[in-house]
Amino acid sequence: MKQNYNTHFMAAIVTLHETSDPQLNKRRVKILFCCTLLVLGLLTSITATAQQGYIYVHKQALDESSSVNSTFTVTGGSTSVTPFQLNDQPAQVNIADIGSSQNGRLWAVDVNDKLYYRNSGSSQWVLTNVTAKKVDGGPGGDCYFINGGSQVFRYDGTTATKIGDPLSGSNWGNGVGLLSGDICNGWDGNPYIITDQGKIFRFTNLWVQLNPSTNNRSLDEFVDGSGSILVAKSDFNIYKISSTGVETNLGRPSSASASYYPNDVGVDDQGNIYAIYWGSNGASVYKWVSGTSWTASEQTSIHAMKLTGGVGKQMWMSTAYTYYQNIFARSTNGINIIWIEDELVRTNPVGNAAMIAVSPGTYTITETVPSGWDLYDITVNDPTSNSSKNIQSNTATLVVGAGETVNVIFQSGLVNTPSKVPGCGTAGRYIETFGTGAACTYGTPLIGQTSYHFDNTTNGTPPEGGYNIVGNSINVILQIGLI
C-alpha cells in the first residue's frame, strides 16, 4: 500500500514540474501540499494499525457472586498502560447484537434496544442515549446502527447522524423495513444493509441496490478497502460478493445441518472468514479454509448467535441461550481454539475484560489479588505460544507481535474456611445444614463451594461450568470431609 501511495505522490510531483505557468504552479503547490498531508496521514494510520498488537485480559472468579474489583498493572514494552480494574460479578444486560470499530471499540445492543460501547484499553461499558436494533462498527470509533423505525445512523458515541432515508427510496418498495435484516461496514464509511425482503443496498451518496437477489440473510464487510462483503444466503451457503455484485460461492461446512439457516457471518481485520451454523452440538462457529472447504465446528463456541470481527484477528460472538446472552471472545494457544465465555455488558460494576492496544514487545501483567482471595490459575492463549505465566508472583508475561491478540485469563477463588462442628465423631468433619427457612424455599448459593456460574433459569441440568439450586422430597444434610 505504501508503494502505491508513493507512486501517486511522485506522479503529482512530475506533473508539477512539467507546468511552466507560475500562477498555475502556485495553485498546484497548495494542492500538492494538502495532498501530501493527506497521504502522510494515511500512511501514518496504516503503519500504526499494522504495527499494533493487542493484550486481552479477562477475569474469572469462583464464585462470581462474591467477586470484587481486582487491579491490574501492565509493565514492559514501549506502550504505557494505565492500571485498570476488572470484576466478575454476574450482573449483566442480555445481548442481541454486537459490532467492532476500527480503533477496537466494541459495541453491543441489548434485548431492550439499548446501545452500549466499551473503549479499547478500558473495562468500563458505557450506556448511550440512543436506541438500536442492529449495530456494526465503523471508521475510527464510530458505529452504524438501525433503529426501530428502520432508519440508519452513523454514531460516534455522542452524535447520531442519519444516513440517507432508506424508506423514502423508490427502489425499496412499499413497506420495506430493516428490522429483520442486517447492517455492516468495513470501516470505509459506506455501510451495507439487508432489508426485510433480503435485498442488499450500499450507501455512497444514496442507497443503491447491489444486485437483484432477494435471498440474503446476514452480512459482513471486508476491511481491505475493496468493498467486498460476506453474505449468508437462504440456500444455506456463504458467498463473497464484490462491490459490483459479482458472487463467489464459498459453500458451507459439511457437518452443518441442512435444516437451519446460518445465524451470522463475520470477517476479521485480516480477512479470516467465519460463519455460525447449526450442527450436532447446536449452533457453533466454523472457519472457512479455501474453495468450499470449512473447518469442523469450534467446540467451545456454544449457543452462537451473532458474530463480529475486529482488530488483531479478534472475533467475538454473542450467544442466544438464556443462561448466557453475553459475549464470547475467540482465542488460540497456537494449537487449540478456545472461545472465552461470559464477557459481561453492564455499567456497574466494571466489566470483566479489557482489550488493550500496544506496540509489539514483551509485557508483564500483574494482578493485585484482593484480600480473602487466592489466584489459583492463569491461562495464556498466545497464537505464537511464546508467552508464559507465574502464578506465585500473580503475573503473566506476554510476547505480543504486530497484528496479533494475546488473551490471558486470571482465575481467582474466594478463600472460605468452613466452620467445624465439634463432637461429630470424626476429626476434621463438619456439617453443612444449608441454613433454615420457610418450607419450599431455598437459600443462597454456598459461598466458595459452587461452580463458576449460577444458572438461575429453569432449564433443568445446568450447562458446563454452571450450577443451580434444586429441591428434594427429603431433608438432606451434606457432610464434607476436610483434607
Quick structural gist:
This protein has 483 residues and is mainly β.
Could you list some keywords that capture this structure?
disordered C terminus, disordered N terminus, single chain, mainly beta, 483 residues, 3 domains, Methylamine Dehydrogenase, Chain H, 5-stranded antiparallel β-sheet, 2 helices
Please characterize this protein's 3D structure.
This protein is mostly beta strands. It has helices at 2-17, 22-51; strands at 53-62, 70-76, 84-86, 95-100, 106-110, 114-118, 125-131, 134-137, 143-146, 152-155, 160-162, 182-184, 192-194, 200-203, 207-209, 216-221, 229-233, 238-241, 247-251, 264-267, 273-279, 282-290, 293-294, 304-309, 315-319, 327-332, 337-343, 353-358, 361-368, 373-381, 388-390, 395-400, 405-414, 429-432, 453-454, 466-467, 478-481. The protein has a 5-stranded antiparallel beta sheet with strand order 3-2-29-32-31, with no helix packed on it. Strands 28-1-33-30 form a 4-stranded mixed beta sheet, with no helix packed on it. It starts with a helix and ends with a strand. The model is unreliable at 1-19, 31-48, 169-175 and 473-483 (pLDDT under 50).
Task: Break the fold down into its secondary structure elements and pairings.
Layout: H1 2-17, H2 22-51, E1 53-62, E2 70-76, E3 84-86, E4 95-100, E5 106-110, E6 114-118, E7 125-131, E8 134-137, E9 143-146, E10 152-155, E11 160-162, E12 182-184, E13 192-194, E14 200-203, E15 207-209, E16 216-221, E17 229-233, E18 238-241, E19 247-251, E20 264-267, E21 273-279, E22 282-290, E23 293-294, E24 304-309, E25 315-319, E26 327-332, E27 337-343, E28 353-358, E29 361-368, E30 373-381, E31 388-390, E32 395-400, E33 405-414, E34 429-432, E35 453-454, E36 466-467, E37 478-481
Parallel strand pairs: 1-33, 35-36
Antiparallel strand pairs: 1-28, 2-3, 2-29, 4-5, 5-6, 6-7, 8-9, 9-10, 10-11, 12-13, 13-14, 14-15, 16-17, 17-18, 18-19, 20-21, 21-22, 22-23, 24-25, 25-26, 26-27, 29-32, 30-33, 31-32, 34-37
Helix pairs in contact: 1-2
